[in-house]
Amino acid sequence: MTRQQILSFITDIGIVPVVRTATAEGAIKAIEAIHRGGVRAAEITMTVPGAIHALEKVADQFGDKIVLGAGTVLDPETARACMLAGAQFFVTPSLKLSTIEMVKRYSKVICPGALTPTEVLTAWEAGADIVKIFPCGNMGGPKYIKALRGPFPHIDMIPTGGVNLETVGEFLKAGACAVAVGGELVDAKTIKEGRFDIIEDRARQYLAAVVKARAEM
């Protein structure tokens, strides 16, 4: 996919599941469930043991049927390794300009983490495709997105932290182009119990919440 196609895919879906699991196998099975639930995007965090292997396996299995991202990318070297494993978009918890530069060099999508207005603008000016607002829930959630969108209506933002089925609509209506959801969708207990049908059902619920919110906007 081209950079623009990847971006459009993410914003059209409106939700990016953050898959942070105890094993690579758990991450792969969680993404399979997410895909069955209709969500065509997912992010595997680098905190997952064997994360690169998980990226390779998902990329081989799904190809362009899913937009695959690498999360918790802390440096450009990790970004490049994930890129070679099949990741198409890259998410960082903090602002590191060299990581943005690496991803832009290969025309992929970069979503660096930022929190303050200064960080948000710095990330955008450095070439961010979307700025991840993290930890958004601790700063007031949708109200914080709305506050940031005041001076920065031209900057696309994805909130992480504080996103659940009750708040997803509020975040979108506040101006987020999409939302990232972690443990509220893919949690350790459900994976340990092997209840991937629950994750599949949650994925459907989140998609429905996005559609409902956008219809009301």
In short:
With 217 residues, the chain is α/β, with parallel strands linked by helices. The protein is built from 10 helices and 9 strands. The strands form 2 sheets. Strands 5-4-3-2-1-9 form a 6-stranded parallel β-sheet, with helices on both faces.
Describe the overall structure.
- It is a single chain.
- The chain is α/β, with parallel strands linked by helices and 217 residues long.
- 48% of the residues lie in helices and 15% in strands.
- It has a six-stranded parallel beta sheet, with helices on both faces. A three-stranded parallel beta sheet has the order 6-7-8.
- The protein is globular and about 45 Å long.
- It starts with a helix and ends with a helix.
Descriptive tags:
217 residues; three-stranded parallel sheet; alpha/beta; six-stranded parallel sheet
The N- to C-terminal Cα distance equals 29 Å
Order of helices and strands: HEHEHEHEHEEHEHEHEHH
Give a short account of the largest sheet.
6 strands, parallel
Relative helix content: 40-55%
Dominant shape: globular
Spatial sequence of strands, sheet with the most strands: 5-4-3-2-1-9
| Low-confidence runs of at least 5 consecutive residues | none
Q: List how many beta strands DSSP finds.
A: 9
Query: What is the percentage of strand-forming residues?
Result: 5-15%
Discrete helix count: 10
Would you tell me the structural class of the helices and strands? Answer: alpha/beta
Rg over CA atoms: 16 Å
